[in-house]
Every structure is written in structure tokens, then in C-alpha cells.
Amino acid sequence: MFEDLAIYRIKINYLEDWKVYFLSDVQRLRGDVAFAPMKDDGREWRIVLSWRPLENVRKKYSSVEAQAKETIKQLAKGKQVKSFEIIDHKVSQVNGHETIFYNLIVKYYKRGGLLKQNIADCIIRFLLLHCPESDRCMILYEESDYPIEQERIFEDVIKSFDCHSPAR
Ligand SMILES: [Zn+2]
């Protein structure tokens, strides 16, 4: 069962048995909110929604696609990342905005013992859009090592996502 969070005209659904936490102070033009299972059973799985001032982003990137490519480049530079593979890439419309979607499999070094480094797979899916109606750039991403049958949850969260719901 899903419940909904509404903040600064953003709306998004999360599962009722998930926890919700802020990764930073949240303002209208800047924030990071995370959703993760209450009981993770040792698995990695979370969904994060971040937003930033669109003005700053537009100064830096010529397009949404250019920003998405840079996001992947930054991700690949991560110290724990060994390699990554793009599984899917598409351009679609979310709330009337051109939206870039990527699905990646990342191989990363998982902490083992002192001399041991395990390599694990992690799935990262994200969508990126620019919302002029609310002057924000939004990135919604999921990192997980979930079994494949739970892929649908992120898709349902995307469907519920509204970046500029009407002011009351
Ligand atoms: Zn919007």
C-alpha cells in the first residue's frame, strides 16, 4: 500500500512500511528526501528525490541530457565503483517535461575484511527533469540490489510523482 508525501508542491508516493528521512535541510528550491524499507534484511534499497534551483543548473548544462550524462560520469568516479553498464536509456515525458531516464548496473567494492574486497552489483535507476513551473531541477533515483520482481515499485513511485502540483 502506498501513502503520499506532499511538500513544496511536490507530491510523491512511498510504501506505508517504508521510512522517510531528509538527507539535508529542505527548502523550496533545494532538498533531498529518502525512502527506504523499515526492515532492510541486510539488503541495500532506497529511493531518493533531490531538487535544486533550475537557474543554477541551466547555467551549467545546455540540456537535460547533458546533465544526465554528467551525473553518470560523476557516479562512475565514485571511489567504490569498479565499473558500470547502461542497461536502458530513454527520453519520455513526466508532468509535461522532457525526462531522461537511465537504468544502470554498477559493480562496486563492498567492504569485506581488512584485506578482502568483495565486488557486488547494484542497480541504479534515475530520472532527471527540469521543471520551469517550479524553477527546479529534479532527480528521482533508486539504488538497490533487490530481486527483479520488485522493480515495479519504483515505476509506481514515478507514476505518482508530481513536480509542480497546483497551488491551493
Ligand atoms: Zn514540473
Question: Any overview of this molecule?
Answer:
With 168 residues, the chain is of the alpha+beta class. The chain has one domain (2-160): Mog1/PsbP, alpha/beta/alpha sandwich (Protein Transport Mog1p, Chain A, 3-Layer(aba) Sandwich). 18% of the residues lie in helices and 51% in strands. It has a 7-stranded antiparallel beta sheet with strand order 3-4-5-9-8-7-6, with helices on both faces. It has a two-stranded antiparallel sheet with strand order 1-2. A hairpin with a 5-residue loop joins strand 7 (97-111) and strand 8 (117-131). It binds zinc ion. Zinc ion binds at residues 95, 97, 131, 133-134, 163-164. The site of zinc ion (ZN) has 7 residues, from loops.
Oligomer: single chain
Question: Which kinds of small molecule does this entry bind, naming each only once?
Answer: zinc ion
Q: Mind describing the biggest β-sheet?
A: 7 strands, antiparallel
Helix content: 10-25%
Task: Enumerate the spans where pLDDT stays under 50 for 5 or more consecutive residues.
Answer: none
Global shape: globular
Q: What CATH architecture label applies?
A: 3-Layer(aba) Sandwich
Order of strands across the widest beta sheet?
3-4-5-9-8-7-6
Structure classification: alpha+beta
Count of separate structural domains: 1
